Amino acid sequence: MRSNKPKPAPELDRDALIRAALDALPNAYAPYSHFTVAAACQMGSGRIYTGVNVENASYPAGTCAERTAIFHAVAEGERVLTAVAIVGGPEYIVEDYCPPCGICRQVMREFADPETCVVILAKSVWDYKEYTLEQLLPESFGPEALE
Ligand code: THU
């Protein structure tokens, strides 16, 4: 019999998530802003999906790393975001924490429990800041409002 109980979140390996984001960073495509970003999402299955920012000569057509990573996971059938690590900086150099933009926070919210979803802003595997999505997007509007 299939249970409809929510599955427990997979264990979070912060080191692996941050490394996945750092490994993806060379693929960022940012010839206009020269600000390169990569994200790695851990999804409900435990699998990690990466994404990078992909800019466009028609500037608004570009998209952020976090959204690329989340849409990558959703396209593979995932629906639950449990954690995300973000790295970024000018020309592939990570010299500071790179917080997610407001649109990306809202896209995270679509697939996450804000109280438990972990958002990691990393400079390296040893140097990172960690928040819940609730801290970064309080009083949020989500899919249950439309049920
Ligand atoms: N960017 C991201 O990829 N994620 C964010 O959350 C912040 C901004 C990208 C978008 C654009 O390609 C570049 O950084 C400068 O805004």
Roughly what percent helix?
10-25%
β-sheet strand percentage = 15-25%
Largest sheet: 5 strands, mixed
Ligand names: tetrahydrodeoxyuridine
Largest sheet, spatial ordering of strands? 2-1-3-4-5
Number of strands: 5
Q: Count every helix, treating DSSP H or I runs of 4 or more residues as helices.
A: 4
> Cα distance, first to last residue?
26 Å
Topology order in helix (H) and strand (E) letters? HEEHEHEEH
Number of domains: 1
Question: Could you report the average pLDDT, rounded to the nearest whole number?
Answer: 96
Alpha-beta content class? alpha+beta
The CATH superfamily is Cytidine Deaminase, domain 2
CATH architecture: 3-Layer(aba) Sandwich
- Overall morphology: globular
Q: Taking Cα atoms only, what radius of gyration do you get, to the nearest Å?
A: 15 Å
Can you describe what's shown?
This protein is α+β, with helices and mostly antiparallel strands and 147 residues long. The protein has helices at residues 14-24, 65-75, 102-111, 133-136; strands spanning 35-43, 48-52, 81-90, 118-122, 128-132. The mean pLDDT is 96. It has a single domain (14-146), classed as Cytidine Deaminase, domain 2 (3-Layer(aba) Sandwich). Strand 4 (118-122) and strand 5 form a beta hairpin. The chain has a 5-stranded mixed sheet. It is built from 4 helices and 5 strands, in the order H-E-E-H-E-H-E-E-H. Bound molecules: tetrahydrodeoxyuridine (THU). Residues 30, 33, 35, 37, 53, 55, 62, 64-66, 100-101, 104 line the site of tetrahydrodeoxyuridine (THU).
